[in-house]
């Protein structure tokens, strides 16, 4: 079977699964006929799609036309889709097995001693007096970017990040991002890649957007994060090398872990490991609260707390704790107010996103280890096809 036929089957499988899982097809700008056919046909039973994926895996293993690295990448993608179809068909799959099959890494619990150690350091750097949790929440929740100022702050940060990204890596002519504010979503921000080098980025304002995390959010979704990766790959892999598998982006596959890891890393790549002084130059003229020195100290001290969400996912889906217990765990160890802890659990229990948290928890350290402070290695991440194991082996070798 030709390589083109195998790729077409992969695209068709992803589109067919997308009929069952809202949001599974994160982006698609491939052959329009395939999308039209998938939309017109009745949804195919998950068990049938599981078998379709199994057969595609067998044919990928037998194919000799695809270069080995490309075939290996495709095989990992299809295995993620097979796992999703099997779960939809009712096959018993444990949470950690599901995550590993979909995203290429096995989630691990982080000892709570690490969180307690972070709390001790935060206790020394968070302003004010009194118990840490109340003090930390009060400090964070005071650092709000009001909705009527948020668009100006986003525009200022995005312009700077775009210029830095263009200077470091180059951007395709004609690329563009439109920004919008939305509500009633389980996530904080989302990049809708539309193809043709254009993205629509939504920022959720269900809860107040905090200034200490705003620059990271903008960089993650646009420059040099998701939008940059999509546009670079559309030009370099799709248009120049005819790798049409890159015209679809599928939740439940290893490409997500790479995408979230590099997007989380992006801000420090273009602005430095401690970008706070530069961020302050954008926020202070707008009258937004942002003490660069305090933000930097708190961010450094609280870095380990990102793993609390991974532990919470395992509590919910491996240990079977109820929602209230997971909320309380996030309140205690992530130092979140009740509303933000509940929002985090909304994400962790959403049918589309429940296993996705591993992409954030495991993606960043793998991408950071691979890049090792070298922008040229980050450019490879936004331009080439990688699997999680590739990053680990390359970082070890270097």
Uncertain regions: pLDDT < 50 for 5+ in a row? none
Global Rg: 21 Å
| Overall tally of structural domains | 2
Largest sheet: 3 strands, mixed
Number of strands: 7
- Give the % helix: 55-70%
The backbone outline, from C-alpha atoms, is: globular
Compute the average pLDDT: 95
Instruction: State the end-to-end distance.
Output: 38 Å
The strand line-up of the biggest sheet is 3-5-4
Provide an overview of this structure.
The chain is mostly helical and 398 residues long. It folds into two domains: 3-93, no CATH class; 112-397, no CATH class. The chain has helices spanning 3-18, 32-40, 46-62, 68-88, 95-103, 112-125, 132-141, 147-169, 211-221, 226-239, 254-271, 276-283, 292-301, 308-319, 323-333, 338-349, 357-371, 375-381, 388-397; strands at 25-28, 144-145, 176-182, 189-195, 198-204, 209-210, 248-250. A hairpin with a 2-residue loop joins β4 (189-195) and β5. A three-stranded mixed beta sheet has the order 3-5-4, covered by helices on one side. It has a two-stranded antiparallel ribbon with strand order 1-7. Strands 2-6 form a two-stranded antiparallel sheet. It is 62% helix and 8% strand. α15 (323-333) packs across α16. The longest helix is centred in the middle third of the chain and has 23 residues, at 147-169. It has 19 helices and seven strands. The radius of gyration is 21 Å and the shape is globular. The model has no long low-confidence stretch (mean pLDDT 95).
